[in-house]
């Protein structure tokens, strides 16, 4: 199990920084490691299950000599086709079981504010790269969650892929806003 006490302490530190106006948003980092070594058939079963996931989820992972990580995410840092780069803001979520009791995502002020932080950050980073097109924000439905999603497309982007990785990662969806505050301090939490 993840360290819940450590997570709570990290959460309180982040809340203090938000209340003091140092940051607007941050995502605490939590790691968990299994003490059980999965058998080859367990890994194969997980991979087979991942192949049947909806196409909105992208399978990722690394596995070598009995250890690694496997997962699926709806996020794509970027996709390039020649000088056209596509990316997305994906922030603001709601578990499906809460749909009857919560404000819809597109009308929820907290979730929309969180999403707009990511949208504004990406727009500022993408605008100098070429002609920027921002799509309307939509709700992405996944097996257990709804997410707010805004797609972007930049035409005429001459940046190389490693430069784009450094420019875009991590977005405030996974890091901190404003980005200039840095995120090294979050790595040191808990």
Mind explaining what this structure looks like?
- This protein has 190 residues and is α+β, with helices and mostly antiparallel strands.
- Helix content is 31%, strand content 27%.
- A hairpin with a 2-residue loop joins strand 4 and strand 5 (84-95).
- The longest helix has 18 residues, at 109-126.
- It is globular.
- The model has no long low-confidence stretch (mean pLDDT 91).
Q: Helix proportion of residues, in percent?
A: 25-40%
| Class computed from helices, strands and strand pairing | alpha+beta
Number of strands: 9
Radius of gyration: 18 Å
Q: What distance separates the N and C termini?
A: 14 Å
How much of the polypeptide forms β-strand, as a percent range? 25-35%
Please report the number of helical segments.
5
- Helix-strand string: HEHEEEEHEEEHEH
For the sheet with most strands, the description reads: 5 strands, antiparallel
How confident is the prediction overall: mean pLDDT? 91
Q: Any idea what the shape is?
A: globular
Low-confidence stretches: none
Blueprint of the fold:
Blueprint: H1 4-19, E1 25-26, H2 40-51, E2 58-64, E3 67-73, E4 79-81, E5 84-95, H3 109-126, E6 131-134, E7 138-141, E8 145-155, H4 161-168, E9 176-177, H5 184-187
Antiparallel strand pairs: 1-9, 2-3, 4-5, 5-8, 6-8, 7-8
């Amino acid at each position: 199990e993840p360290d819940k006490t450590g997570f709570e302490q990290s959460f309180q530190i982040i809340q203090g920084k938000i209340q003091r106006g140092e940051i607007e948003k941050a995502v605490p980092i939590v790691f968990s490691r299994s003490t059980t070594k999965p058998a080859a058939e367990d890994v194969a079963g997980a991979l087979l299950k991942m192949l049947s996931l909806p196409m909105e989820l992208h399978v990722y992972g690394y596995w070598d000599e009995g250890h690694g990580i496997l997962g699926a995410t709806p996020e794509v840092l970027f996709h390039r086709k020649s000088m056209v780069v596509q990316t997305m803001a994906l922030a603001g979520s709601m578990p499906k079981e809460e749909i009857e009791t919560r404000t819809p995502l597109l009308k929820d002020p907290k979730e929309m504010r969180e999403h707009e932080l990511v949208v504004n950050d990406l727009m500022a980073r993408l605008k100098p790269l070429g002609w920027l097109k921002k799509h309307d924000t939509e709700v992405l439905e996944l097996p257990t969650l709804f997410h707010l999603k805004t797609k972007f497309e930049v035409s005429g982007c001459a940046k190389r892929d490693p430069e784009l990785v450094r420019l875009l990662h991590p977005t405030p969806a996974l890091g901190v806003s404003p980005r200039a505050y840095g995120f090294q301090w979050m790595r040191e939490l808990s």
